[in-house]
Amino acid sequence: MLAALAAPLALGQAPACAPLPGSDALWRDGTRFIFIGETHGTVEAPAAFADLVCLALERGPVTAALEFPTAMQPTLDAFMAAETDAAARAVLLDYPYGPFRFHDGRGSEAMMAMLLRLRALRRDGRPLTVVATVPDSPRLPGFGQSYAELDRAAVWVEAARARPDDRVLVFVGRVHAEKTRRVGSPIGLPAAAHIRPEDSLSLAVARQGGEAWLCRDECGVAAITPVDDAAARGVVLSPDLDPAFDGLLALGPWTASPPAPRDQPLT
Are the beta carbons of 70 and 155 closer than 8 angstroms? Predict the structure, then answer.
């Protein structure tokens, strides 16, 4: 199964992927799911996720699981199939719902750039599938956020079952990527905690200062308090840093990425 991914694919004349320090540790046999837990609204995290997808594709097929509503899947498919980047961008921005209309950081300029990079990899012939993985969980009394987390995990598992030879790289908000129970929280078990631990690695994007475009009391650029080692860079595997994760993805201080503008199509 995943052991077969160890042999690199022939990628023709495609440009080499950007290196990411420590990332070789992610591609061990048997790791089906790799979670990247981000804070929405930064330049660095989406760019790094695209780099990781590119690096994973050097070792075999990849499913990129994104934190978009599953109802957006036909739109994502049309985005990938569009003739030009300008047409692809227009398809995404014309979707009447979701994060590119109701901004929470997932519809940022950086996210658009990430999607265009994934599209370029796919159009280059790489074995990449891009899926939207936030289900429309029923809102019923007694079935709160903990059940929505379980629903997310079920979508990830179905994506893996659909392509059993793929690595599944999941780009999601930090809380959903945690692998330990949140005691006393309505979340209970975050989505990644429902996946067999031996089958997954989960990285939190390190908080090393800078800014992010966030929606709290109101939406806009917010300063980020440094928490993690300011000197760290790349993939740092160490559950001692935070028991909810297997390590960090350290990208340095963040830069805020505002919502993708609707009136500036690509040329």
Answer: yes
**Phi, psi dihedrals of residue 21, rounded to the nearest 5°:** -55, 135
Helix axis angle, 85-94 to 73-81, nearest 10°: 160
State the SS3 of 77-110.
HHHHHCCCHHHHHHHHHHCCCCCCCCCCCCCEHH
Model confidence pLDDT, tens digit, residues 184-243: 888 999 999 999 999 999 999 999 999 999 988 888 999 999 999 999 999 999 978 889
Q: What is the C-alpha to C-alpha distance for residues 99 and 113, in angstroms, rounded to an integer?
A: 15
Of residues 179, 168, 228, 173, the one with CA closest to residue 202 = 179
For residue 14, what pLDDT is reported? Answer: 53
Please state, in angstroms and rounded to a whole number, the distance separating the CA atoms of residues 249 and 36: 8
> What is the residue-wise DSSP string for 189-245?
S-GGGGS-GGGEEEEEEP--SBEEEEESSSEEEEE----S-TT--EEEE-TTS-TTS
pLDDT tens-digit readout, 74-104: 999 999 999 999 999 999 999 988 888 887 8
